[in-house]
Design goal:
Chain lengths: 158, 108
């Protein structure tokens, strides 16, 4: 890969050599290909701000909580986030601005460190759109503030 | 010019800020056990998959073609490329001006 930028007074060029891919890499990624979004089985929630996760993730870091469980609580219209699938010690409820359900009602577990990395890539003050699929979620911000879409694989689901 | 483009499997223009942000926040320090990433090129999007040594995909960044100022991928099927994460840590320092537009070329 070559990356080149024009600085106005010349240009800088940076070259990176690719590592070799073996059959294992290809098999592994082809397997993941099967987990592509399936509209028939998904759930979309909109939260007011990406920053709503800040306090939760900071609590998890301080208390060494390795993962969080996510579930949409349809009666309360809240996104329920807890430290355990059952016998939780703490639970947070985030107000959902908009929702759209398509045959998906699952409780999914995500790694806190990875979640924290993902959230730090998004603008803090933007609305956050979360799309849940059977084994992963997509994190997105509105088109005008679009940076990229982030896909996080779930550790487990119930 | 036509010849130049056809040599490349991928040619794109993107803001330096976008690539810098990805490689600054998804450093090996933050994503333990990750020392490489896979780049999957497709007609309409580029995917970066950060996987652990144990081959768990930890995080995937999907850059749709409309995030690029220009996006040209001259293959019919998708292609897989693997890069060391360490090689990209220098990006944050190399292109300090966030407003710069980077040209990316991938061959092989």
């Amino acid at each position: 890969m070559r990356i080149r930028s024009n600085t106005g007074k010349g240009f800088a060029e940076y070259g990176v050599v690719a590592m070799s891919c073996d059959q294992d890499d290809e098999d592994f990624l082809i397997e993941d290909e099967e987990l592509r979004p399936n509209v028939e089985s998904s759930m979309t929630l909109k939260l007011a701000r990406v920053g709503l996760f800040e306090g939760i993730l900071s609590y998890c870091k301080g208390n060494k909580i390795p993962s969080l469980w996510f579930r949409f609580e349809s009666c309360k219209r809240m996104l329920e986030i807890s430290d355990a699938d059952e016998n939780h010690e703490i639970k947070w409820y985030l107000r959902v601005e908009e929702q759209s359900l398509h045959n998906l009602d699952s409780h999914m577990q995500f790694d806190c460190k990875t979640l924290s990395c993902a959230i730090s890539l998004l603008p803090n003050d933007s609305e956050l759109q979360i799309k849940f699929y059977p084994d992963f979620m997509l994190l997105d911000v509105p088109e005008k503030e679009k940076i990229f879409t982030i896909k996080l694989n779930a550790k487990g689901s119930a | 010019m036509q010849e130049e483009i056809s040599r490349y499997r991928f040619e794109g223009k993107i803001k330096a800020q976008i690539l810098k942000q990805i490689f600054k926040d998804l450093s090996p320090k933050n994503l333990k056990g990750v020392d490489h990433f896979y780049l999957i090129l497709k007609k309409e999007e580029m995917e970066m998959q950060f996987a652990s040594i144990a081959k768990d995909i930890l995080i995937t960044i999907i850059l749709k073609s409309n995030l690029f100022q220009s996006y040209k991928y001259n293959m019919e099927s998708c292609s897989l490329h693997k890069y060391s994460l360490e090689d990209f840590s220098a990006l944050s320092y190399l292109f300090e001006n966030n407003k710069l537009i980077l040209d990316i070329f991938i061959t092989n």
